[in-house]
Design goal:
The complex is a heterodimer. Chain A is α/β, with parallel strands linked by helices. Helices cover 38% and strands 16% of the residues of chain A. In chain A, the strands form 6 sheets. In chain A, strands 2-1-3-4-5 form a 5-stranded mixed beta sheet. A 5-stranded mixed beta sheet of chain A has the order 10-11-9-8-12, with helices on both faces. Chain B is α+β, with helices and mostly antiparallel strands. Chain B folds into 3 domains: 77 residues, Ubiquitin-like (UB roll) (Roll), CATH 3.10.20; 44 residues, no CATH class; 119 residues, no CATH class. Chain B is built from 7 helices and 11 strands. In chain B, helix 2 runs antiparallel to helix 3. The N and C termini of chain B lie far apart (58 Å). The mean pLDDT of chain B is 93. The chains are: A alpha/beta, B alpha+beta. At the A-B interface, helix 18, helix 19 and helix 20 of A face strand 4 and helix 2 of B.
């Protein structure tokens, strides 16, 4: 029997099956198995649960899910039992997994490692909330509510609506939460122009970094002459520390497909490409599965939803070049040429893949489309700021308590993201700055914490939205060293075509390296700024134009720190090795010999019960003595 | 026809030209290293950068890749352009301190020395060799390899290319003389391309002349009227042809 869906009735049937799968009449145990979950041992937990269920002959359903965003607390395991709210367990391991199973078997609520209880589930597409039973038999009052957790309270999950909720390999579960209903709506009720109008009015802007209005991009492709057109999904996420696209691809691949199919209908394309980096093997696997399923159910292929549209999607794997996230380089790479940007015009909308009009959007942008169609442009455009509508997913990493992916309305302040959601800085350290927008973004200092986050505001302070990476740094991070790190990344990742970008980055890196080695000279800051201006103004693509941002912002906001390196030969954050000295405080040193034994350089001398001494000429400043000393006797100067 | 303003003067031009081509046409000199009229514009050296003002917005862009559009104003030598161009040439001077063309350009722009880290390369990565080989010779024997600071032009896998004809077009267009062709008796060597090709012996005088694959390619192209001469070196070719035309016996 054909599984192909051709009518609303059939879609509803599929949804019913999906709901049964989401809310079975037996325990449903979900394990976060996106890359972040796997990296912390989620697979092991899954295997233990699987074996345990089999061994005990339990009637329970074990499913892998995507990432709920709270990566700090992975591996996450969710338990949904008939008659109970959903309970989320954090930082699970094999032993705890067995304990959890024992408790399920005995009908108890296991209260260790509980993160939160989820009292209701929201189906964003249908604007519908589904209350879980309260589980009144047991007292769950002391378990915090998921919606009230500081990490989630201010979040609004549109692009990541299904991540951590559905089994990404189960199409019916996607449909249960409203998936493919927007596609059905578009194909049965909308002319292509109406779809574009809706996207246009929503105010959605490109989530890949540049923030170009998505609707306008679609109009250009729609109006471009030619029968053959392409839609492309840019999944070449390459910023260090940013992984929101990966999370969506792994946790909710169908949302991307649905967005792309709607886009294909709107611009008149019959073929699409997803350009995904080869370093995302799980995302590629999920996408492949999803494409197969979508074909089986008639959401992709020659007769989509009963012959209303023909569209197919191919996967093209990137070979690990950061610059291939730039759309003209991406196109070159799909065509099998070297990934290298070319001048625009012509824009891809006029002449893109194989010279045909092509529309490229980022993963997160595509994931927003079904919701915009379902809820309407008016609803979407109420979220966010005047010129930046909707939400943005940020990956908050670095010196922060709650590492993870957060999706928040545009216009939220940096303070809310870093303190309310991120839980502040660990170890009582002082917040220093946040690098937004990845390596080509800028470093926003602590005194701009009240900055509302949107495209315009970030640009105003010299940074960019970029793909949404946020690397938080504290007082122990040296900003000169930070800028040096990002430039060394960009030195390798620039395609090398433009003189200004290729040679300019090398030059700036040389100066910064010199400064961090204590060999900075008067005039270095001014020279850096001069080079940065040229790299910014004279380079061809976005990579070169933004490459100097970290230098420009750190030298603007932390000029005194640069000057300390150059003039006083000091690193205020005590990071740059050539500028620090380890000294033993004789009053505190008990003469325990620990540091003497640990020092690989044999640079510490001394006798038992007598203060030790560091021979500076031998010291390589590795910091082992500093970490070894139990008496706080080693100082950094 | 399009109307634009360039360096304060009004100009009227046909559609389809780049700003650089237009400037050349009306006698405005813009320095460039990676542009050659025989191949497509590439925009790599960034030396031909100019200021383009459109709808009140000013931006710097390479004139070789910027199409002339109605109503734009171009400044080829504004302060901003001069400052930017000077620093770019300073970067190139550090990369290729011995290249005559870079030294001359630096002198012309008032760059006395470079402060950028020295590299002592010969190649400025303008890509003219790559483009001439692809677009004109149509064999694609050389290309770019690696990214960023490690970028270079080379043959696939950095071994002798199967398709290189040894025609020397790459060396001909190379602005810095980085590609050297060495003809030794019966061989043509191009070290830059890891290539050594045998040469054809002139049927008449016995001198070695064209690289074998180049002559093979010409034969394949089927220049029938030339077929009598293909085995001859250029000197003998001229002589034999002249004799033929004069009706002289050899």
């Amino acid at each position: 029997m054909s599984k192909k869906i051709a009518s609303l009735r059939e879609l509803d049937e599929l949804r019913k099956r999906g709901l049964k799968s989401l809310y079975p009449d037996k325990p449903r145990i979900m394990v976060g198995m996106a890359t972040c979950g796997l990296a912390t041992g989620g697979k092991k937990v899954f295997e233990i649960l699987s074996k345990g269920i089999e061994k005990n002959g339990m009637d329970a359903k074990l499913v892998p899910t995507g990432c709920l965003g709270y990566c700090q607390k992975e591996p996450l395991v969710d338990l949904l039992r008939p008659g109970w709210p959903r309970i989320i367990y954090q930082q699970m391991d094999p032993e705890k997994a067995e304990k959890l199973l024992d408790n399920i078997n005995q009908g108890n609520i296991w209260r260790e490692n509980v993160l939160a209880k989820m009292e209701e589930d929201e189906f964003l597409i249908f604007d519908e909330k589904r209350k879980y039973p309260s589980g009144s038999k047991a007292n769950l009052n002391n378990i915090p509510s998921y919606q009230q957790l500081p990490f989630y309270k201010k979040q609004l999950r549109i692009a990541t609506r299904n991540c951590g909720f559905i089994n990404p390999t189960n199409l019916a579960e996607y449909v249960a939460r409203g998936g493919y209903y927007s596609l059905f709506k578009v194909l049965t009720q909308y002319e292509p122009e109406q779809v574009i109008e809706e996207v246009m009015n929503s105010g959605l802007r490109g989530r890949g970094g540049a923030g170009f209005p998505t609707g306008r991009k679609w109009i250009y492709s729609r109006q471009a002459k030619g029968d053959t057109k392409y839609v492309i999904c840019n999944a070449d996420e390459g910023d260090p520390g940013a992984y929101m696209d990966r999370s969506i691809l792994e946790g909710d691949p169908h949302s991307i497909l649905e967005g792309m199919i709607i886009g294909a209908y709107a611009i008149g394309a019959r073929e699409g490409y997803i350009y995904v980096r080869a370093e995302y093997p799980l995302a590629i696997e999920r996408l492949k599965e999803a494409i197969h399923q979508a074909q089986d159910y008639g959401f992709l292929g020659n007769d989509i939803l009963g012959g209303r549209l023909s569209f197919s999607i191919n996967i093209s794997r990137g070979a690990g070049a950061f610059v291939c996230g730039e759309e003209t380089a991406l196109i070159a790479s799909i065509e099998g040429r070297q990934g290298e940007p070319r001048p625009r015009p012509p824009f891809p909308a006029q002449s893109g893949l194989w010279g045909k009009p092509s529309n490229i959007n980022n993963v997160e942008t595509w994931a927003n489309i079904p919701v915009i169609i379902a809820r309407g442009a008016d609803w979407f455009s109420q979220i966010g700021t005047q010129r930046s509508k909707g939400t943005k997913v940020f990956s908050v990493v670095g010196k922060i308590n709650n590492t993870g992916l957060v999706e928040v309305p545009m216009g939220i302040t940096l303070r809310e993201i870093i303190y309310d959601i991120g839980g502040g800085i660990p170890g009582g350290k002082k917040f220093k700055a946040v690098q937004t927008g990845g390596p080509s973004g800028g470093c926003v200092p602590s005194w701009l914490l009240n900055l509302p986050v949107d495209y315009e505001q970030l640009t105003k302070v010299g940074s960019i939205m970029g793909s949404g990476g946020m690397i938080v740094i504290d007082e122990d991070t040296c900003v000169v060293d930070l800028a040096r790190y990002f430039l060394s990344f960009l030195q390798d990742e620039s395609c090398g075509k433009c003189t200004s970008c290729r040679e300019g980055i090398v030059w700036m890196l040389e100066i910064l390296t010199r400064i961090t080695h204590g060999k900075g000279e008067e005039g270095d800051i001014e020279l850096l700024e001069q080079i940065a201006e040229v790299v910014k103004n004279a380079s061809l693509c976005g990579l070169g134009k933004t490459a100097p941002n970290s230098v420009l912002t750190t030298s603007l906001y932390f000029k005194d720190e640069y000057e300390a390196h150059i003039k006083d030969k000091q690193c205020p954050a005590r990071v740059c090795r050539d500028l620090i000295t380890y000294i033993i405080n004789e009053e505190k040193c008990t003469g325990c010999m620990r540091c003497v034994k640990e020092c690989v350089q044999e640079a510490i001398v001394g006798e038992r019960r007598k203060p030790h001494r560091i021979i500076q000429e031998k010291c390589i400043k590795c910091g082992i003595c500093y970490e070894t000393c139990k008496f706080d006797a080693i100082k950094l100067e | 026809m399009l109307k634009i303003v360039i360096d304060g003067k009004e100009a009227e031009v046909e559609e389809g030209l780049s700003v650089l081509e237009l400037a050349e046409k009306i006698g405005v000199k813009i320095p460039t290293l990676c542009y050659h009229p025989a191949v497509g514009a590439y925009g790599a050296c960034r030396v031909c950068i100019v200021e383009v003002i459109e709808k009140g917005l000013s931006k710097l862009t390479t004139s070789c890749t910027c199409p002339v559009e109605s109503g734009i104003e171009v400044k080829t030598n504004s302060e901003k352009v001069k400052k930017t161009r000077k620093l770019i040439v300073e970067m190139l001077l550090a990369r290729c301190p011995d290249a005559k063309i870079i030294q001359d350009l630096a002198k012309q722009l008032g760059v006395e020395k470079t402060r950028a880290p020295q590299k002592n390369e010969n190649c400025i990565l303008c890509g003219l060799c790559v483009r001439i080989c692809r677009e004109i010779i149509a064999v694609d024997a050389v290309g770019f390899a690696n990214r960023g600071n490690k970028r270079k032009v080379t043959t696939p896998f950095e071994i002798q290319s199967d398709v290189c004809l040894g025609c020397g077009a790459c060396a001909f267009v190379c602005p810095t003389g980085a590609i050297k062709i060495e003809d030794v008796e019966d061989k043509r060597k191009i070290d830059m391309w890891h290539t050594e090709l045998g040469k054809v012996k002139c049927e008449r005088c016995g001198r070695y002349f064209s690289p074998v694959p180049l002559l093979e390619q010409i034969k394949k192209k089927g220049l029938r009227e030339m077929s009598d001469f293909l085995g001859l070196c250029p000197d003998c070719r001229r002589l034999v042809l002249a004799n033929k035309l004069m009706g002289r016996e050899e």
